[in-house]
Amino acid sequence: MKISLADTEATLRLGITLGESLTPGSVILLEGDLGTGKTTLVQGIGKGLGITEPIVSPTFTLINEYTEGRIPLYHLDLYRLEPQEVPTLNLEIYWEGVEVTPGIVAIEWAERMPYKPDSFLSINLTYGNEGDVYDGLRLRQVELIPFHCSIDKIIAAIYSRIQNSRHEL
Is 110 exposed, middle or buried (0-12, 13-18, 19+ CB in 10 A)? Predict the structure, then answer.
């Protein structure tokens, strides 16, 4: 599924929809160039989960845990790591829910992962083509690709939000 996002607010709204729709154990692998909205999308997911504390990029801390919402949000950022360093983080503890309470796992710069969970939602954020402009701003494109998971509920929520809004998602 591909979606055009007009601005930061649209990216945030998409994240809110995801946060309201995802279930414990969901893993989101985020990819995209700097500035395409990965952290903004995770901030929206946090809002959709009812998390009120500020969600910031864990670029230097690598992992931020937010446990106050409907379900926990585990926000990881692999930007500063080389692929061979990633296995030392034991990321699977987050999606297996063995050592932590099952929640939503959102991983920025997921392309640096040498291994992936069995089931996940891949989200790729990119800048639109040069001519894709809305209110003077270049649109962003989001592609959602499920791997061994169902996103029917998410797609239905996205379409419902689009139909109930005069703005692009």
Answer: buried
Task: Return the structure tokens found at 35.
Answer: 């500035």
Strand, helix or coil for residue 145 = strand
* DSSP H or E segment with residue 133: strand 133-134
The CA distance from 92 to 133, in Å, is: 39
**Both tokens of residue 137?**
């701003």
CA dihedral over 44, 45, 48, 53, signed as positive or negative: negative
141 near 33, Cβ under 8 Å? no
The alpha carbon of residue 69 and the mean position of all alpha carbons in its chain are separated, in whole angstroms, by 16
pTM for this predicted structure: 0.85
- For residue 168, report the phi and psi dihedrals to the nearest 5 degrees: -70, 150
Mean pLDDT rounded to a whole number for the chain: 86
Helix (H, G, I), strand (E, B) or coil at 99: coil
Nearest in space to 113 (alpha carbons), one of 75, 144, 74, 86: 86
